[in-house]
Records
---
Amino acid sequence: MEEFYSGFAQRARDLAEKADPFTRRRLLDLAQRYELKSRPGSTYGRPSPPARATPPTVLFSGSGEA
């Protein structure tokens, strides 16, 4: 799977060489995302959310009766 995304990243870079500035920027951003996906053990460029230290607080308190 890594080779698949790495190949897509290279194709996006190749296309970016011939593109207008706006499209070039978008293609290079896309290539960077594909590169992140091609790395084994990657979380696709997204950091894991931090673990909660405490349980969520209750928004409403009371008996629950209307």
---
Amino acid sequence: MPLLTLRYGIPFALVVGGFVLLFAIEDEIRWDGWAMLVGSGLSVLLLNWLFRLGVAGDEERDREEAAREYFGAHGHWPDEEQD
């Protein structure tokens, strides 16, 4: 639950805060505040996505390394059928 709050709650709160600011303030500065908060929320969301994408690449490399070690020990790949 804390991870989901960090991953989606903070960006959601920033975007919602931007729209609240847009409708709550009557001055021209509201557009700057809206852009700042919505941009911040979307950047946090994108950063979380990019981090998860990088971690997935590490898992792929670990699986490939395990398959190479299996090949070195047994002489065939783990998903190959034995004759």
---
Amino acid sequence: MVKAMWNGEVIAESDDTVVVEDNHYFPRDSVKMDRLVPSEHTSHCPWKGEASYYSIKAGGVTNADAAWTYKEPKEAASEIKDRIAFWNGVEVS
């Protein structure tokens, strides 16, 4: 089972993650979406497409833009559609 933790809280937990570029992408239904707040931040990857971000709120603290998803990934990255990955201090193990 892989867990994503931040500020002492489990944000996501699944035995069905997809690893791309050393990042675990969790199925959306394994993520505590009540801890995520949509962000205006976006980024572009040449082979995955446009990423949308979320900030994480846990324990009264916000971790800005610490989760991302590819809502419409390019064909080469289709396996990460509807999945969410984490960074910026989120412990994934």
